[in-house]
Amino acid sequence: MQLPPAPQPSAASPTPSKPKATGDSSGTGFFVGNDGSLLTNAHVVDECTTIRVTLDGREPLPARLAASDKANDLALLRVDHRPTKLAAIRIGIRLGEPVAVFGFPLSNVLASTGNFTLGNVTALAGLGDDTRHIQISAPVQPGNSGGPLLDHQGNLVGVVTYKLNALKTYPSERGRGILGAARGNVGSWRSMRTRSTMPFWRCYG
């Protein structure tokens, strides 16, 4: 699949410090507002005391949690940065269409410049026929969480959320299996408005 030139979302790598024994974990995010608003997964920053965002290999910037929607695993961060490129959202997605994932998996192990993988939409529902999610075949690793799911023109069609362990039937970032992506369609956006998420949407816009 050849991707035509298209504006890409400015991606970033949120690196939260958690009050656990290991101290650090990491994920991926992307800018959705020119005021420094950055979208990632809620589980990436959940229970973190400090959040830092690394942009293009520069020194990490402090970020704050502006809003969180744990039911849909989304979090909005704010950072003192004015991006020049923002995600262009496309409504609707089709079974079998080609998609791409960009992110920063396995922080401090794989390339710090990011990882780009290709695949297809393999199902229009996730675990238990949850239509807020889709399944894709693009390979992902721990650290891809919160990254953008893009169509062949570079438009945002979803957010990477989880992958199913091949041996245990629960969402996990370990093992091989099913990747869920929060769908960018009218139904899912409306359902998020009805699940006590108005504080999130007031911040997100």
TrEMBL record:
Residues 1-27 are annotated as: Disordered. InterPro entries: Chloro_Bact_Ser_Proteases, Peptidase_S1_PA, Peptidase_S1_PA_chymotrypsin, Peptidase_S1C. It comes from the Bacteria. Keywords: Hydrolase, Protease. Belongs to the peptidase S1C family. GO terms for biological process: proteolysis. This is Trypsin-like peptidase domain-containing protein. Residues 9-22 have a biased composition (Low complexity). One of its GO terms (molecular function) is serine-type endopeptidase activity. The lineage of its organism: Bacteria, Pseudomonadati, Pseudomonadota, Alphaproteobacteria, Hyphomicrobiales.
